[in-house]
Amino acid sequence: MDMSQGRMLSVASNQWATRPDDERFLSLSDMYRARHTAETNCRESVINSGQLRADWLGEELILQPSPDTSLPVTFKATNWAMSQFSSWHSIPFGTIKLWQEDSEEVATKQLIADAINHSLKYRGRELAFYHDKLDNGYPQTLRAVTSESYERINDYELIDKVIQFVDRSQRQGVTWKVPGTIDWSTGQHIADIEVTKRNTTLYAGDRDSFIFLVDDMNPINMGKTQRGEDDLLFRGFILGNSVVGYRRIWGMGFLFRGVCQNRCIWGAQDIVSFKMKHLKNVRQRLFESNPDSNSPFEQRRFVEGLMYLSDQQQSTMLQAENMIKSANQREEFTDRDSRKKALVKLFTARTADNILDHHYKLFGEVDSAGNLVVDSKGNVNTDSEILTRWHLHNTATEYAKTIPNQDARFDLELQAAKILPLAA
Fold it and tell me: How many Å apart are CA 128 and CA 326, to the nearest integer?
């Protein structure tokens, strides 16, 4: 595996590092059942928050109807819901939490309730309260407080669409699954592993859901790396959603070279992504075709959109494979001058010299004094000569790894990719 190619994505690793066991799932069907049960036991009520008042039920802060209203609900809020509720009413949630933690005195509790009720009196507004259904006990658990325009997409709806996509792909001979892992002793990505709660990439909890699936059983061989290894690319995608306003609906598709045990994605490239806010018509945009959209994904229904993304990834991999084969077919560089001439089409003369010098320092033959051994024409004696455009591309990306500034390194890698289609 060529670690110098592409980017490292940590988005899945961040999930892997923070999710508790009860938010980890071994299969999409298990994930669907858990979220379906949780979300069908909830409902949304539009309430003017000015009709509520804060009070204490033992050690729990609750929101209950004001004496002059007939609202049928009383809420105990999750930490997330209370932070949203506070934000809507300009209540300093962090300060109130500190007061609550620092003191158990009745006077402090009353001060907290009074502060909240003052804001409700003057800043009450129509809001969507997402809470347990009325027959689940008293008081009801309040899970989110959002605007009336917030259009909720349930996690189980999204998971169901992914299951449809996976089943449809399976009938076409493509297996989308939890990714395998890199065997660092060989540098190879091993696809066939047992899925456990430790290595799964299917996560869902009260705040959000996260799905990371790959097709790592059908790699495309992009040729040989500069070290003579097979450069294999796989397809992958990630989807995320939140029922409670924690994040947008979002997704990304990419090609990659391997996933390690802590779920870092290595050698990612050709990354495409989308985001949708939970606003009016988001359900239509997500689940219905939208021919007028500029996004090819949104022009299709969700499952067809995933199929389109999969097909595009496959097409990109095949195009890259053909480009690399073409770049490897002819040995067109015979000396330093011809190599530099190709490089200065994309880089400054100084950068071109630095790229070539770095390569020869790594692979060139040196004498007892540490000087490079050259022939009568000034060519360096080396077993890793730069003969084709593929060799030249790898030489530039190898040099890019020495650049400490990430943006400059990434810019050089982007330019290096243009070496492959250069006309000879």
Answer: 58
Residue 390 exposure: Cα atoms within 13 Å on the Cβ side: 21
Q: Which are the contacts of 411, defined by CB distance < 8 A and separation ≥ 6?
A: none
What's the maximum distance between 2 C-alpha atoms anywhere in the chain?
99
What is the model's pTM? 0.74
For the chain, the straight-line distance linking the first and the last C-alpha, in angstroms and rounded, comes to 28
Give the tens place of pLDDT for each residue, 238-295: 999 999 999 998 888 888 989 999 999 998 888 888 888 888 878 877 777 666 666 6
Q: Is residue 308's pLDDT more than 50?
A: yes
Cα–Cα distance list, 115 to 92, 99, 121 (Å): 9, 12, 10
Distances (CA, A) of 2 to 252, 318, 322, 423: 22, 18, 19, 25
CB neighbours of residue 34 within 10 Å: 19
249 and 278 in contact (C-beta within 8 Å)? Answer: yes
Cα gap 326→299, rounded to integer Å: 34
pLDDT digits (tens, 9 = 90+) for 371-417: 555 555 555 555 456 778 877 887 888 888 788 887 888 888 888 87
Residue 4: closest CA among 286, 308, 226, 307: 226
User: What is the tens place of the pLDDT at every residue in 129-172?
Assistant: 999 986 555 788 999 999 999 999 999 999 998 998 899 888 88
Distance CA 163, CA 29 (A): 8
Burial class (CB in 10 A: 0-12, 13-18, 19+), 286: buried
Classify the C-alpha dihedral 415-416-417-423 as positive or negative. Answer: positive
φ and ψ of 98, to 5 deg: -65, -45
| Euclidean distance between CA atoms 424 and 415, whole angstroms | 17
